[in-house]
Write a structure and sequence with these properties.
By secondary structure, the chain is of the alpha/beta class. It folds into two domains: about 270 residues, Aldehyde Dehydrogenase, Chain A, domain 1; about 180 residues, Aldehyde Dehydrogenase, Chain A, domain 2 (3-Layer(aba) Sandwich). Belongs to the aldehyde dehydrogenase family.
C-alpha cells in the first residue's frame, strides 16, 4: 500500500525530523511475518532532554492561545487522521499484528479523542463562588498543567497516544510522546499529521527508544515535565511513581488488569457468548480490558461452555491484512511463551482444553478455551494477555462477587443478567473502575477510562479527562466596594 509519506524513520522534536545524537537505531519487525519494516532512532536521555526543553520553551505561547485556536489545530489533525485512515490502519497492522478490521476501528476510535477534546478545549469552565463577605469576590479558573509526557503501550499504537495527548493539547500543554519500541511507526505517522495540522514547533514531540527505563527516568526526574501519563504494567507504574516523588509530579497511571466476566443463570446466554467472544479475543486477547476470567453460574455452566467453544472454533486466523481474519499473532516470543506456560499450568491442575491449545507457526496460537478452571491456577491471578479463556464455576451471587474482587487489580469488569435489581447490586459491588453490564465492549471517548486499586488512578476520555491536565486556581478579589 502507498503510505503517502506516513512511514517516518526519524523522531520528531521541536518541529524537525531528527535521528539519535548517538546515531544508534533499532529495527521494527512485523510480528506476523518476522520481516524488518524499518530502522528508527534509538534515543537516550540527552535526546529526551532536548524534546523536554523544546516543549517547555513552546509552552507559554501555546497556553496563551485561546481554546478555540487550539481546537482549530486539533480539528485539522482529526481530519487528517480520518483522511489517511486506510494507510494508518495498514501501518498499524504490519507493525503490531493487529488484524486489519481492528486497526481500521482503532484509527476511528483514536481519532475520536482528538475530535472530542478539540471541542472540550472551548469548555474548560471555572466557577464563580458566592462570596463569604461583602467586600470579596471568589473565582476559580483552570489552567494548563505544563509540559506533559506520555508513555504508551504497543497494543493500541494510535489510540493510547491520542487518549493522552488529546486532553493535554486541548488544555494548552505541549507534549512529548514515547511510543513503545515494538510499535513506534504509527506514533511517528500521526506526528507527521500533527505537523501538517499546524501545531507550533515544540508543542508536539515524539521520541523513540529501546531504553524505556532511562526515558521514563528522565521524564520523572526532569522538573520541566509537570505531568506524566503512563499505560503499562503495574510494576513499572510503581517504579515511575517512586521516581516522580522528588518532583511531586502529577501522574495518571493505567496499569494491569484481571478482568472478570460473570454470567448469571438468568442471563441471555447467546448474548453473553457473543460479548465474551469479542471482549476476550479482540487483538488476540492482548488488551488491558480483555476478559481474563469467565465466571459462570453452575446452572448454565455446561450450556455456556458448549456454545462458547463452538463460537471460538469459528474464529478465523491467517493473513492479518485479510479483512475476514479475526485472529493475528502474539506480539513477540515472550508473549507466546507466557500463553503456553499458563495453559500447561492450568491443564496440570485439572483444566480441560475444549478447543485450541496449540501454536500454528511463528507467533500464531490457536484461540483456546479452558473448562474446569480453578482459583489455584496462575491464570486466575495473573493477566494472560493472549487468546486463552479460562471458565470458572460459581454457585451464588455473593460467591461471584467475591471471586471477581479477589485480585489486586480493578480496571474493567463485565457481567450478564436480566434482573435489573441484580444489575444494580453487582455493578455497585464490583471493585472496578469500569463495569460492562450486558455489554462486552465498553471503551468510548465520551466515557471515563481508568481503574482502581493496583490498576492505577486517573481517568482518560470524557469531560473528566481534561481535569488531569489542568491546575485549578482560586482567585480571591478583596476590597470590592458594593
Amino acid at each position: 500500500m502507498e503510505l503517502k509519506g506516513l512511514l517516518k524513520t526519524q523522531a520528531y522534536i521541536n518541529g524537525k525530523w531528527v535521528g539519535a545524537a548517538s546515531g544508534k537505531t533499532f529495527d521494527v519487525t512485523n510480528p506476523a511475518t518476522g520481516e524488518i519494516i524499518a530502522a528508527i532512532p534509538d534515543m537516550d536521555r540527552s535526546d529526551v532532554q532536548k524534546a523536554i526543553d523544546a516543549a517547555d520553551a513552546a509552552w507559554p505561547a501555546y497556553r496563551d492561545m485561546t481554546g478555540k485556536e487550539r481546537a482549530g489545530i486539533m480539528r485539522n489533525w482529526f481530519n487528517l487522521m480520518m483522511e489517511n485512515k486506510d494507510e494508518l490502519a495498514y501501518l498499524m497492522t504490519i507493525e503490531s499484528g493487529k488484524v486489519m478490521t481492528e486497526s481500521l476501528g482503532e484509527v476511528t476510535y483514536g481519532a475520536s479523542f482528538i475530535e472530542w477534546f478539540a471541542e472540550e478545549a472551548k469548555r474548560a469552565y471555572g466557577d464563580v463562588i458566592p462570596q463569604h463577605t461583602r467586600d470579596r469576590r471568589l473565582v476559580v479558573i483552570k489552567q494548563s498543567v505544563g509540559v506533559a509526557a506520555a508513555i504508551t503501550p504497543w497494543n493500541f499504537p494510535l489510540a493510547m497516544i491520542t487518549r493522552k495527548v488529546g486532553p493535554a493539547l486541548a488544555a494548552g500543554s505541549p507534549v512529548i510522546v514515547k511510543p513503545p519500541s515494538e510499535t513506534p511507526l504509527t506514533g511517528l505517522a500521526i506526528s507527521y499529521l500533527a505537523e501538517n495540522a499546524g501545531f507550533p514547533p515544540g508543542v508536539y514531540n515524539t521520541v523513540t527508544s529501546t531504553n524505556s527505563s532511562e526515558v521514563g527516568k528522565e521524564f520523572c526526574e526532569n522538573k520541566k515535565v509537570r505531568k506524566l501519563s503512563f499505560t503499562g504494567s503495574t510494576p513499572v507504574g510503581k517504579i515511575l511513581m517512586s521516581q516522580s516523588a522528588p518532583t511531586l509530579k502529577k501522574l495518571s497511571l493505567e496499569l494491569g488488569g484481571n478482568a472478570p466476566f460473570i454470567v448469571f443463570d438468568d442471563a441471555d446466554i447467546d448474548a453473553a457468548v457473543k460479548g465474551a467472544l469479542i471482549s476476550k479475543y479482540r487483538h488476540n486477547g492482548q488488551t488491558c480490558v480483555c476478559v481474563n476470567r469467565i465466571l459462570v453460574q453452575d446452572k448454565v455452566y455446561d450450556e455456556f461452555v458448549d456454545k462458547f467453544t463452538q463460537a471460538v472454533q469459528g474464529l478465523k486466523s491467517g493473513n492479518v491484512l485479510d479483512k475476514d481474519v479475526q485472529v493475528g499473532p502474539l506480539i513477540n516470543e515472550k508473549g507466546l511463551n507466557k500463553v503456553k506456560e499458563f495453559i500447561k499450568d492450568a491443564v496440570d491442575k485439572g483444566a480441560i482444553i475444549t478447543t485450541g491449545g496449540k501454536g500454528t507457526g511463528g507467533l500464531f496460537f490457536q484461540p483456546t478455551v479452558l473448562a474446569n478452571a480453578t482459583q489455584e491456577m496462575i491464570i486466575a491471578r495473573e493477566e494472560v494477555f493472549g487468546p486463552v479463556a479460562p471458565i470458572f464455576r460459581f454457585h451464588t451471587e455473593e460467591e461471584a462477587i467475591q471471586m471477581a474482587n479477589d485480585t489486586e487489580y480493578g480496571l474493567a469488569s463485565y457481567f450478564y443478567s436480566k434482573d435489573v435489581n441484580r444489575c444494580w447490586r453487582v455493578a455497585e459491588a464490583l471493585e472496578y473502575g469500569m463495569v460492562g453490564i450486558n455489554e462486552g465492549i465498553i471503551s468510548t471517548e465520551v466515557a471515563p477510562f481508568g481503574g482502581m486499586k493496583e490498576s492505577g488512578f486517573g481517568r482518560e476520555g470524557s469531560k473528566y479527562g481534561m481535569d488531569y491536565f489542568m491546575e485549578i486556581k482560586y482567585l480571591c478579589y478583596g476590597g470590592v466596594k458594593s
